Amino acid sequence: MSRMSVELGTEESRLAALCALAQQTRELMDAVALTDVGEDDLTAAHAALTAVNERLRSVLRQTPQPFEIAPDGTLRHLGNAVTGGANPHALPLLIEVRDGGVRAEVVFRPLHEGPPGAVHGGISAMILDHLLGQAVAAAGSAGMTGTLTVRYRRPVPYGTPLVATAEYTRTEGRKTWAEGRISLPDGESLVEATGLFITPSAWIGA
Ligand SMILES: CCCCCCCC(=O)SCCNC(=O)CCNC(=O)[C@H](O)C(C)(C)COP(=O)(O)OP(=O)(O)OC[C@H]1O[C@@H](n2cnc3c(N)ncnc32)[C@H](O)[C@@H]1OP(=O)(O)O
């Protein structure tokens, strides 16, 4: 009698391996940003990475991992530059949706340095752009960023636990506004943003 074997979760297992590789790559980027080893070690690391790079590039997708439904039923986007577990560029940010808005704990790293000793303003803006967009989506009005206004109140430190929050504010037709901030755990606001998100006419056939 022949047996039929059904492998469950093969793709999930591969995606987990991809996320583990992305995490290792983040740690590699951190190491490259901070390493103080000598030239021989730098040259050896370069050669080793060249080999890894060639192996990974032997089979390439056209685009990063797409939006998809995860096994737990939630929507995920592993290729996203802010939240995607499979994207080495992502922190990745874990966003919690709760009554009245969204929230994420953030620890920036030396890799994110802009001015000496602080986080690059574009990195803060990127995090806030995404968080405001999630607040809009959580309110049922998904859209693309039309405008993002950022006020930098204090330098954002790296290596320190911070809190990022955002809330939907209002909607007029296809336009939805949200506001948010990155704060110290005691609530002191470091960076604040307001954003206009527009549901593209193409999405609704308008
Ligand atoms: C859940 C996931 C969260 C992810 C959050 C991440 C958010 C992002 O980073 S999105 C990427 C950055 N944003 C973009 O790439 C957007 C690029 N722009 C576009 O695609 C289009 O211009 C888009 C969608 C904004 C508007 O296009 P379209 O639907 O054709 O709008 P259109 O019909 O021209 O204009 C509609 C209204 O919006 C206004 N408007 C359009 N664009 C803008 C803008 N950039 N700023 C202000 N107002 C605008 C128009 O003036 C018009 O106003 P009114 O109705 O009062 O006359």
Automatic annotation (TrEMBL):
Main enzyme class: hydrolase
Membrane topology: Peripheral membrane protein
EC numbers on record: 3.1.2.2
Classification via InterPro entries: HotDog_dom_sf (IPR029069), THEM4/THEM5_acyl-CoA_thioest (IPR052365), Thioestr_dom (IPR006683)
Signal sequence bounds: none
Pfam family, one: 4HBT
Cellular localization per UniProt: Cell projection, Ruffle membrane; Cytoplasm; Membrane
Annotated ranges, domain Thioesterase: 117-187
Entry coiled-coil feature ranges: none
KW Cell membrane (keyword) present: yes
Keywords: Apoptosis, Cell membrane, Cell projection, Cytoplasm, Fatty acid metabolism, Hydrolase, Lipid metabolism, Membrane, Transit peptide
Catalytic activity: (9Z)-octadecenoyl-CoA + H2O = (9Z)-octadecenoate + CoA + H(+); octanoyl-CoA + H2O = octanoate + CoA + H(+); decanoyl-CoA + H2O = decanoate + CoA + H(+); hexadecanoyl-CoA + H2O = hexadecanoate + CoA + H(+)
Protein origin, superkingdom: Bacteria
Family, per entry: Belongs to the THEM4/THEM5 thioesterase family.
Name by which UniProt lists this protein: Acyl-coenzyme A thioesterase THEM4
